[in-house]
Amino acid sequence: MAGPWQQYKAPNGRKYYYNVETKETTWTNPYQKVNVEKKPSFVIPLLNDWFLIIFDNGGKLYLYEDQLYTRLEDEESLELLDHLNKDKLVLLIGISRGYSSLKSSDEVYDSIINEIESYNQSGIDIIEGNEITDDIGIDDIGVNEPLSEKDKESPSENDQVETMEPSLANALIADYSSSDEDDDESDDDYNGHIDKKVKLDEEPLSTEIDQLTINQYKEMFTQHKLNPYSLWSMEMNKCSDDPIFFSVTNDQDREAIYETWCGEYESGKEEGDEDNKNEEEEELIPTKFHYLSHVMSKSNISNDTIFEDIKNENKPMWKQFRINKMIPDKKEQREFVTKLLFYYKKYTQEERIELFIKWVKKYSNLDQSIDIKTLNHWEELHSHEDSSQKIETLLFLMERHLNITEILSTHQTSICYEYYILGIKAKCDTLYSLLVTDAVS
Amino acid sequence: MSHVKKIKNAPEGFNKISPVLFDFEKKLDEVHKEKESRLSAKSQEKLWKIMQIHHERSLYIYKLYYKRKLISRELYQFLIKHKFCDKHLIAKWRKQGYEKLCCLRCIQSDETTHGKTCICRVPRAQLELEAEKKGTEVTFKQCVHCGCRGCASTD
């Protein structure tokens, strides 16, 4: 077989086709010229063994000696088509596309067949009224533009549209417009009709529903106050008048959206509550090594102290501050304590305070000045708490103001040791005095 | 007297779902009042309708508890106790491959002659493929046990 498509047999014996280049597989023969997806719904016999076939997607082809053509190449049949009632043909096409009409499809089809027969009987004499075809030819020009739009929608139907559609399209106007029967209908109006048609075409194509429609749908449910404790079959009546309701065409999809909406109905409320709680907690989250440094400042440090000494000495505190939870990595704990021990052993309290001030000036945004009022306000706010707790909250507030919390979480730990070389109380006092002097100056 | 309305001391949240349960009960009542067909071929159809409504009601409660998570465990167990739903069927729905199971009898393999499950458990696509091989149409419409038209998970 020539070309990229190769024929293979599936295990069940059915033939399938495989594209060597794009690695696609398909059941249908890609070399077959006629689109297999559409099924013929009506066959109308024309003259000289020509047949007009109308497909269920509204397209049409001509059949002559078991070959399908997009163009009608028989003159007599062309003339016959011109003399047929266009409204009926259009109606037939509409029915095959799924348009429900008052007349049954058989009735329309029979009347067309009758018309053809009467035409055949009366002979070719009638054809002499050639003016009619001329009229249609003039109309073609006016219709051309909207037609091209339609062609874009269905390039496969291009050719067949050319032969017959101009006259049919004319009839389409009369069919769709309910109030006006003027032949000189403006193009704008016509476009409107075409747009509607195009939309109808697109809807069944969208098998996947995008998030936007789903959200819109859920909003609609909330608007119509659907009961999440009920069944879809009962609730759908409440919102079926809404135009959004039809943005999803498949009822199974609709039900699925309803189910998810019901699930979110309760959880939506709970989530909101949780968010609030988180925000409150977030206000005062201690930095990672906050408590470990606090433990260090409380312990006795001599020249030969190591990590294990501190851990053993302060076991109750270790538990109390949940240090293992804050710093799950034991290696990190050890590294941090060893580094801090170096500072504690080498420098005195005063020297450490100096180092601390240097660090704060270097990294934090001290320039962002603060009112003494806010400082006092902070102090007042927490005056009812016990002294140690008050100091801690005050420290957290100052840390947040100076952007230290963020620096500590984003930077590498190696930079941050100097921030932890003081106990909580000393740290708080130094920061406070720093801020106060800053505010005063 | 309605079974739903008779219930007292129900856990919290029962009044929210009771209108739906009442609706199901009405449907069951209507089926009950219908006359049974005398044709032996159609004699099962009334039973099928009852099975279907019961299936729908079980599905409703299953979705309320497991999917929407709108009712408490207490209420769910209360509903099971008062036989508003089939707990064995719900237990099956939670297993993979049984998401759409119609009734328990359809997977009861030791009641059938060849030790296999009901035909409604066979995926529709497979039925069609087999029919195509033989060159016939798919003859299966509804199963005899519960009137199921196919309950494979892929359907």
Give a nutshell description of this structure:
The complex is a heterodimer of chains A (441) and B (155). Chain A is α+β, with helices and mostly antiparallel strands and 441 residues long. Chain A has helices at 75-83, 86-97, 105-122, 131-153, 158-176, 187-202, 211-223, 232-239, 251-283, 290-298, 307-313, 315-320, 323-326, 330-346, 349-363, 372-381, 387-401, 404-410, 413-416, 424-440; strands at 5-9, 15-19, 25-26, 40-45, 50-55, 60-64, 67-69.
Q: Which features does this protein show?
A:
heterodimer, A: Arc Repressor Mutant, subunit A, 4-stranded antiparallel β-sheet, 3-stranded antiparallel β-sheet, 20 helices, B: 155 residues, mainly alpha, 6 helices, 48% helix
Structure report:
The complex is a heterodimer of chains A (441) and B (155). Chain A is an alpha+beta fold and 441 residues long. Chain A has 3 domains: 40-204, no CATH class; 211-283, Arc Repressor Mutant, subunit A; 290-440, no CATH class. Chain A has helices at 75-83, 86-97, 105-122, 131-153, 158-176, 187-202, 211-223, 232-239, 251-283, 290-298, 307-313, 315-320, 323-326, 330-346, 349-363, 372-381, 387-401, 404-410, 413-416, 424-440; strands spanning 5-9, 15-19, 25-26, 40-45, 50-55, 60-64, 67-69. In chain A, the strands form 2 sheets. Chain A has a 4-stranded antiparallel β-sheet with strand order 4-5-6-7. A 3-stranded antiparallel β-sheet of chain A has the order 1-2-3, with no helix packed on it. In chain A, helix 2 (86-97) packs antiparallel against helix 3 (105-122), helix 2 crosses helix 5 and helix 17 (387-401) crosses helix 20. By secondary structure, chain B is an all-alpha fold. Chain B has 2 domains: 7-94; 97-155, no CATH class. Helices cover 48% and strands 0% of the residues of chain B. In chain B, helix 2 (14-33) runs antiparallel to helix 3 (45-67). Chain B is globular. The chains are: A alpha+beta (441), B mainly alpha (155). Chain A binds chain B through residues 12-14, 228-231, 234, 259, 262-263, 265-267, and chain B through 16-17, 19-20, 23, 56, 60, 63-64, 67-70, 129, 132-133.
